[in-house]
Structure formats: C-alpha cells, structure tokens
Amino acid sequence: MSFDSIIMVDWSASNTPSPAKPSKDAIFVGQDDRRPVYCRTRAEAIALIEERLRNTPGRILLGFDFAFGFPKGFAQALTGRAEARAVWAELAGRISDGKNNENNRFQVADALNAETPGEGPFWGRPAGLNLAHLDMKKRKTAAYPEFREIEGQAKGAKSVWQLAGAGAVGSQTLIGLAHLHRLCEAFGDEIAAWPQDSGWAMPDARITLVEIYPALLDRSPLKALSDGWDDSDPIYAIPDAVQVRALCHAFHQAQAQGRLEAFFAQPAGLSDAERIAREEGWIFGVFADAPSLQPPPLRNDCFALPPGVDWTPVDDALALLKERLTVVTPVKTAPLSQALGCVLAAPQTAPRAQPPAPNSAVDGYGFAHACLGDGPHRLPLMQGRAAAGIPFTDPVPYGAAIRILTGAILPDGVDTVVLEEDVSTDGQAIAFREGVKPGANTRKAGEDVELGAQLLSKGHVMRPADIAHLASVGIESVPLHRRLRVAVISTGDELRDPHEAAGPGQIYDANRPMLLSLISDLGYEPVDMGRLPDDRTVIRAALSEAARTADVILSSGGASAGDEDHISALLTETGAMSMWRIAIKPGRPLALGMWENTPVFGLPGNPVAALVCALVFARPAMSVLAGAAWKTPQGFDLPAAFTKRKKPGRREFLRARVVDGTVEVFASEGSGRISGLSWADGLVEIGDGARDIVPGDMVRYIPYASFLA
Predict the structure, then answer these.
(1) Could you give the CA distance from residue 321 to residue 305 in angstroms, rounded to a whole number?
(2) What is the C-alpha to C-alpha distance for residues 640 and 642, in angstroms, rounded to an integer?
(3) Which of 214, 456, 631, 648 could lock onto 623 through a cystine, CB 3.0 to 4.6 A?
C-alpha cells in the first residue's frame, strides 16, 4: 500500500494567537509539494487539517511533531490501562483549548500530579502561576522514567514531563493529544495511529497518523530540497516551514524508492516491543530497520582538479579530498552487540545516570557522618544489610550503622561508609577509630555519567570500551552506518594467483590480497572482484558489477596513461576521471573518478606504491565515506639511524622500523621490493623540500597502526 498524499504539521502550545505575519514557533501545515500554510491558532490549524483530510482523495499519511505517548507506567497509573489511546481520551476530557489559544494545560498537569500514584512527573510553569502540585523545576526523584524508549536513544529529545522553559515539549504533547483524540473521534474507522493501533505494521485505514520529530530524522538528503522553491517567499526564511515541506518531500522520495513501507517495521533490539507500540509509541522514520533516508551521491566532478593544476602537493591533494567527499553509507539500527567497528550515525546520550543512585564503593558499614563525635567511635548496628541489587529500604536512624556491601545503594540516613577492615564488631555494634572523612568510600549518583549527558558523538567508530559505556546506562540498540563496502580489482595479463603456475614474465598478484586484508583491518567489508586481464570489455563489466555491490572501488594497476592502462581509459570515457599527478614517492599517478556514481581510487601497480597511496589517500577518504571523521595518522619525532639526501619537489615515504628508540629504513627504496613492507612496522615521512639527514637527526615516523586507528 502507498500514500497518495502526505501532510506534516509543526505544532505549537502557545497561549495566544501567533502574529499576523508568519513567524517561527507557530503552527505550519505542509502537504506534499505545496507552499506550507501558516496558522495563527490551533483551532485554525485543526479546521484546515480536517478540511484537507475530507477533501484529499486516496490514502493520507498525517504527522504531528509531539509525543504520542508517555513513559512506562504513566498510562496505567492514570487510566488503569497501559495504552496511549486511553491517555488521549482522558486528556480530551480535561484539556480545554479556546479559539484564541487560551488553555488550561498547567492546571491539568497540576491535577495529574496530584492524582497519579508516586511523585507527580510534570514540571515547569510560568513564574507568576502558583500551583500546589506543579513545581517550576524538575524534581530530584520521580515515579516514572524521564524518557520513552525512543527518546532515550536519540540526542536532542526533550522530556515530555517538561511543560515550560527552553526547548520544552510537554505542553505541546498535553494539548496535542487531546486534539488527536478529537480528530480520531471525528474520522472514526477512517483513521488509525501507528504504532498504537496497528502494532509494528502499516495501518490499512485511509488516514495513518504518525508521530514525527524533524530534528531526529536523518536529514542529509534534505539540505538541497529548497532548490527550486521561490526564494523571494518570506515563509521559507522560517525553519519550521521549511521542515514540514522538506519532510513531505523526503517521505514521498522514500516511497518512490520503495523504502517507506520499511519505516513501519519493528525496530531491532526492542525487548518490550509490544508494550512500547501500545503505550509509548515511536517516532516515524527514526531508526528504521531498513536503510533510512539515503545520503546523496557524490558528484561526478568531485575529483576534478582546479584549472591549471598539474603536479599536486600531498597536502593539497588531501585537502581536496577532505573538502569534497561525504558519507555514502545508509543508516539502520542494530543491537549493541553488533556495533563493534561500526560508525555511529547519531550522538548517544545517557537515558539514565551511572551510577543511578549513591552507592558504596567498598564492603563496610554505613552511617551519617554528622553523628560522629571526637575520639574513637561506637555505633549500634541495625539488623539487616544493604547489598548490590538488594537495597535496604528502611531509613537508618541518626547515630546508628548498617552493614553495606560494594555497589549497594546508600539507604536513607547514610552518607559515609567505613571499611570493614577498619572496624571491630560483636554483631550488635561497631567500633572504629577517628579520621573517617564525610562521604568516604561512597559514589555519588551520576558520578560517572549524568542523566542526559552525551556519551559518544556522531561518526564515532565503536570499540569494545564504547559498547561497555553504552551498555552501562541501559542502551540496547544504536543507529549505525552500514559498514562501508570496498571492492578490490587487480588488472594485468602478467598476474597469477598463488594456486596457479607462473610462467616466464608472469608474477603473483600481491596487491589484491594486501588491499583486501587492509580493508578488513579497517573494519570495512571487502568485496573481491578478482584478478582481471587487460581486456577493456571485461574490466568495464567488472567495474559495473563493483558499483552495484560496493560503495567505493580500489583498483591497482592500469591507472597511468599507457596502452594497457584500462582503468584510467575507462574512467576518461565516462567523463568522470581526473589523473592526479601527486608529488609523492613512491607513487605519483593516482587515478580518481566515478563509475556509475561510485568513487574509484586507481592505485599504482607497484605494491609498495599501492600500499603507501592506499594508506595516505584512500584510508582517510574511506573513513569519511563510511560516516566517520577524516583520519590523520599520529606521527612521532624520533632520531634517525640512517643517512638520506633528498631533492626538493616530492614528499617521500620510506619503509621503516624502530630499533632501540631510533628509526632505521629499508636498504632499498625500490617500489617493487615487497619484502620491505613486511620488514617495516611503519613509514618515515620526509617533507616536500630538500633534506640532508644524518644519524641522530629527528625524523617523523608513522607506525602502520596509526594509519589503521
């Protein structure tokens, strides 16, 4: 099933009508590729939406940018049913919203705080509005989680409990849910909410209602969508208006590419998926199991050199690559257990503090430090104990102590712990010497990670320690860029594979296994396209197959301008080829181009030059294409154990290794001497200018491991 029309709504909880002139922080209604409509009041917006729903033929996708549910437990506490739709109905009976936006949302929140079990979760109100059960600031403890599952995984999401203050979204939610219920009442069986009504499946109703949050969507394809819009129209100077039109376009685009239906699928890694769908809901289009909105392809001219440039210094070549390349891998959500070596597609924030509550750092005895006097101390010992995972729930009286074990939450009345090794006890009391400091041997709540703190940034490559970091705060799944797929091609009639006999003039292919291993070592997915003869038809077909199955192509050989240099010749035929004559040794010719929208790095045929160019140029470029940051290898200044006279003009990389704190280089600089690559554990980099190096001079040494980090 597909949608004939898409309507996106940017909502507002304003108390008064918005200005007559379109302005930000108001309501905008976007539909398909139409100019967004500015609405001064919610009454005006709902009337427009109802009119559009009645008069637009076919199936409609309708999105609103506020939460469609509350965190776990609230619906049950308020209505007796763990269902978001029950909360909608309850709010529709409580919220009044006048024609000029006057409403009672703060009074309703005050009543909800008073009526629901535990400490009322809503907070935030105007300074001049005094309500007994609605505080201006967030309470230190709460009976319900601060975030829903989806918000706990997404940077930038605000808590639905916050009703006022910077970035607050709670007011929009309270008023918005009341209107959603009334909208559903008006359209009956024609409308269904996803996933509350349908579970993790596309509803079959004529109108599908979804929660959206533009700031959390992968918006990389939306950056250029304003091209062709009327630049003189002042409405497009307002980000809210641009967002609703861009989202309509993006979802239409996803549908045309056959990807929109996958957005309705259950996200991976949800252990409580049925409850989440029914009670909390989900943000449509975020962390879909199928690839989400695709990044834009690279331009065919992205490798073009500036006019008049012939020889390109290494630094200039790297700067051009860094400027022109961008991510090409799509995004999907995966369990944390599958994240090792993958690139994060969005920043990760802590859905809870670590540790979540004050706890003991040692095995010992806890008490209130203020009860201690001078000299040796003797405190009566309460019966029972506090252990990790088994808290002591009664308060500890002032002047008494409780047995407490490492990791146990500090009971009320305890702020200090004394080591059991420093204590004498008869089971009824404890005795210890003076000198214990206030707060000794305890950990504060959030001491390691505070609630809402950013844990990892977008583009971070996941390591085992990062997985532990996210797991420690309860993150189960993460949005990841799909691993970069790198196709490797070797060309040359003279090449043979190890299982074949090599005749006169033939050599074994070292480049392909070397590059495939390098790609695996970098955490990417190697795609072996095999060894190809010097046949342009065969190579053309292989390039096309590689472009269909991989994100980037590395070839070795055939990258110069000779009769059998077919890679460069084919790229030239397409008009997407640039021969970069780089001032580097070993190396020089580096054929860069696009084949069927896939970047191609044509490396030199000599193995030493191929590896050096792959490490220096392809390595940082592939990092960007994979969604991570540009990688600059870490070098170290060490004394030379060799002599070298270098002419100006080219940057040189010598195979090298460290011995007793000094750097020695391989005896031969020949780029065909493969044994030198294995002999070395890194490279010495010598700058573009002339250099006379004698033993003891400082040189820049780059370990192989620095290129791979």
Answers:
(1) 10
(2) 5
(3) 631
Instruction: Give Cα 460 to chain centroid, integer Å.
Output: 8
Beta bridge partners of 654: 684
Instruction: Tell me if 108 sits within 8 A of 173, measured CB to CB.
Output: no
Give the amino acid at 234: P
The share of the chain scoring above pLDDT 70, in percent, equals 89
Predicted model pTM: 0.59
Contact partners, residue 614, CB within 8 Å, separation at least 6: 515, 518, 554, 601, 603
Average pLDDT over residues 113-140: 85
Report the candidate in 226, 255, 231 with the shortest Cα–Cα distance to residue 242. 226
* d(C-alpha 61, C-alpha 230), whole Å: 25
Beta carbons of 656 and 682 less than 8 angstroms apart: yes
pLDDT exceeds 80 at position 216: no
What are the structure tokens assigned to 396, written together?
């500890």
CA dihedral 522, 525, 531, 533 (to 10 degrees): -110
Q: How far apart are CA 437 and CA 442, in angstroms?
A: 11
Distance CA 86, CA 63 (A): 20
Which residue in 79, 521, 221, 536 sits closest to 341, CA to CA?
521
Residue 299 pLDDT level (bands cut at 50, 70, 90): low
83 close to 279: Cβ distance less than 8 angstroms: yes
Q: Count H helices, E strands: the chain?
A: 17, 36
State the virtual CA torsion across 666, 667, 672, 677 in degrees, nearest 10: -20
